[in-house]
Amino acid sequence: MQIEPTPLSGVFILTPARHGDARGFFSESWNRRTLSQAGVDLPDFVQDNHSMSMQVGTLRGLHYQAPPHAQGKLVRCGRGSLFDVAVDARLGSPTYGQWFGAELSFENGRQLWIPAGFLHGFVTREPDTEIVYKCTDHYDKASDGAVAWDSLAIDWGVSDPLLSDKDRAAPAFADWTSPFTHEAQA
C-alpha cells in the first residue's frame, strides 16, 4: 500500500495495490497490520457507509460529528469520481481552517484517511458516483453538524452545486464554533 502524507497532520492518502488480470482486479483496501508496519495506526472502525450521487456536481459537506461521537473516516470511491476534502477544525492546531483535497476515483483507487476533528465533504465529477467509507464511531443524530461548503475558499470546481437543505442552511466557518481541540486529537 502506498501511503502519502498531506499538508494536514494526520490526514493521509492511501493507495492500495491492485492485482489484476483479464478478469479484473483484487485489492486489499484496508489492512491494520500493513498500515501499522508503515507507522500509521488507525482507530477501530465500527460502521461502513455507502452513498450514491446521481448527478455531476452533487456536493455533500462540509460535515462533522461532534465529540463524544466524533468520527474518523477512511473514504474511497466505489464508482465514478469525486473531489474529496478534509478541513482541520481542531482549535489550537497550526493548520486550523486549512483544507486538503484529493481526486478519488474508481480508476485511481486512492483513499483519504480523515481523522476525527476534521470537516469532510466531497463533490462528484461523474454521474452515478459512489462513495464508500469506514467510520470510527456510530452515527449520532444529536452530534451531527455541517459548515457551509463555500465559506473556506475551497476550489470545488463547481459554482452552483446540487446541495441538500442541511448543507444550504449550514453556518459559515467564521460564524461556527468548533467542538474540536487539537490537544484532544494528539
TrEMBL record:
Gene3D superfamilies the UniProt entry points to: Jelly Rolls
Gene Ontology biological-process entries: dTDP-rhamnose biosynthetic process; polysaccharide biosynthetic process
Domain of life the protein comes from: Bacteria
UniProt keyword list: Isomerase
One Pfam family, short name: dTDP_sugar_isom
Site (Participates in a stacking interaction with the thymidine ring of dTDP-4-oxo-6-deoxyglucose): residue numbering on this chain: 139
UniProt GO molecular function: dTDP-4-dehydrorhamnose 3,5-epimerase activity
Pathway: Carbohydrate biosynthesis; dTDP-L-rhamnose biosynthesis
The enzyme's E.C. designation: 5.1.3.13
CDD domains: cupin_RmlC
Catalytic activity reported: dTDP-4-dehydro-6-deoxy-alpha-D-glucose = dTDP-4-dehydro-beta-L-rhamnose
GO CC field: cytosol
Subunit annotation: Homodimer.
Function: Catalyzes the epimerization of the C3' and C5'positions of dTDP-6-deoxy-D-xylo-4-hexulose, forming dTDP-6-deoxy-L-lyxo-4-hexulose.
Protein's UniProt name: dTDP-4-dehydrorhamnose 3,5-epimerase
Lineage: Bacteria, Pseudomonadati, Pseudomonadota, Alphaproteobacteria, Rhodobacterales
